[in-house]
Specification:
By secondary structure, the protein is α/β, with parallel strands linked by helices. Helix content is 22%, strand content 39%. The strands form 2 sheets. Strands 1, 2, 3, 6, 7 and 8 form a 6-stranded mixed sheet that branches. Strands 4-5 form a two-stranded antiparallel sheet.
Length: 158
């Protein structure tokens, strides 16, 4: 499972359909997380990334040092599913998405990730799984962190 985590001043996601656009998730200051579910990912991967995301110390403290987590700041999380994070563009010009989980495997893990964020005491909004979405945000910093559950430390404490 892969995640792109961005520190934001605000973020929202909307879906267009039927002649109108509906905002499905919005957050004030906090994190925008694009989440890609790979074939073979498990609930443990989602829980690991939820723990990492909520604990990342990427917000400034009183001295201007990145020393606070989104939880410390009272921020929120907007989680958007994005299978294109699993793109393999090593050959040719058209990326392959064969490493991405099928929707019936990915949807429950995306929803579990959101649940895990909420269980850690943070508000978490989301997009619409498999929909064509429009994401608007104001990146703060910019601060962008890449996470991959398959590259985690072998130490269960980290």
């Amino acid at each position: 499972m892969k995640a792109v985590v961005q520190r934001v001043l605000n973020a929202s996601v909307s879906v267009a359909g039927g002649g109108r656009t509906v905002v499905t998730g919005t957050v004030p200051a906090g994190l925008l997380v694009y989440l890609g579910v790979a074939r073979g990912d498990r609930r443990e991967d989602a829980a690991y990334l939820a723990e990492k995301v909520t604990g990342l110390r990427i917000f400034d403290d009183g001295e201007g040092k990145m020393n606070l987590s989104v939880k410390d700041t009272g921020g929120s999380v907007l989680a958007v599913s994005q299978f294109t994070l699993l793109a393999d563009a090593r050959k040719g010009r058209r990326p392959s998405y064969s490493g991405a989980a099928q929707p019936e495997e990915a949807r429950p893990l995306y929803e579990y990730f959101i649940e895990q964020i909420r269980l850690r005491g943070l508000p978490c909004a989301g997009g619409v799984f498999q929909a064509h979405m429009r994401v608007s945000y104001t990146n703060d910093g910019p601060v962008t962190i890449l996470l991959d559950s398959r590259l985690r430390s072998r130490n269960p404490e980290t």
